[in-house]
Amino acid sequence: MRFQLKKDSFSNERCAPGRCGGFTLIELLVVIAIITLLMAIMLPALSRARTMSVRLMCKNNLKQIAFACQMYTDDNEGKFYQNVNAQLFYGGGMGLFAPTERKPVNRYMSLPEVPDEFTKAKVFKCPADDGSLIFPFYEMVGTSYQTNKLLIGQDETASLGDAGLTSAINARLRGVKLSSVAGPAKLVLVGDYTWASQWIPGDLWGVPWHRQHCHFNVAFLDGHVAFLRIRKGLFVTPEYNILPFKDLYSLAMEVQEEEPCEFCE
What pLDDT, on a 0 to 100 scale, did the predictor assign at position 30? Predict the structure, then answer.
């Protein structure tokens, strides 16, 4: 049987008014407006989700670093690592500044103590340290994180705002041991790079790390990590402590004075 199409099957007849299948200009504008509104709603949410994801990856890094620092003290009679700029060179990759520096915590992370250009010390690189924060800290010194210099640092610290407190701290700082420090659950061990300047009285304000002024990821001596506000000028607070020595708490609370942050008030 042979089938034939009618001649007008594909005719190009014009549709009747009001029955065409296309959009009118008003309908098109409405659709564009709806899409624009949805994007305006979704983009901030996506940005927040990305920030939270970066913050979480950073926390995981800090947990591993804190655990490696604990293993270092266990193998060294409970002593924390002390050396010139130890708060920077305790561990990490090569870095452009002091590239031959020994980094003793590395061996607890299966990394060479003196890293070379091929060393991928990813655990020491925060995803937020992408070059948008003044400069890429990991590229410069090999780590995105600094330690509490009253634990891992030099055996003497410079002025901390009060001569009496500074002197009392320095009398206890040389060869500081895990057994001589108090409150590991509240004592900050290591945190996002610029947290280290955030708390020091009279020093520069720490650069916002996770898109929130004065807030940083920090790992405590007991290994847990928190995202919290670091208050400039304070050594002892209800949420955390910088000062390792409990017998100096009362002196610290007498002389410490918080410097207000205009971005956080």
Answer: 77
Q: What's the gap between Cα 90 and its chain centre?
A: 17
CA of residue 66 relative to chain centroid, distance: 14
**Within 13 A of 229's CA, how many CA atoms are on the CB side?**
13
Number of domains in the chain: 1
The whole-number average pLDDT for the span 47-76 is: 91
**DSSP one-letter code for 107:** G
Domain coverage including residue 59:
26-255
Please count the CA atoms within 13 angstroms of the CA of 126 that sit on its side-chain side: 32
Note the pTM of the prediction, 2 decimals. 0.82
In a domain, 4, yes or no: no
Beta carbons within 8 Å of 174's beta carbon, 6+ residues apart: 82, 155, 156
Q: What is the residue whose two structure tokens read 């001649």?
A: 7
pLDDT tens digits for 92-138?
999 999 899 999 999 999 999 999 999 999 999 999 998 888 889 99
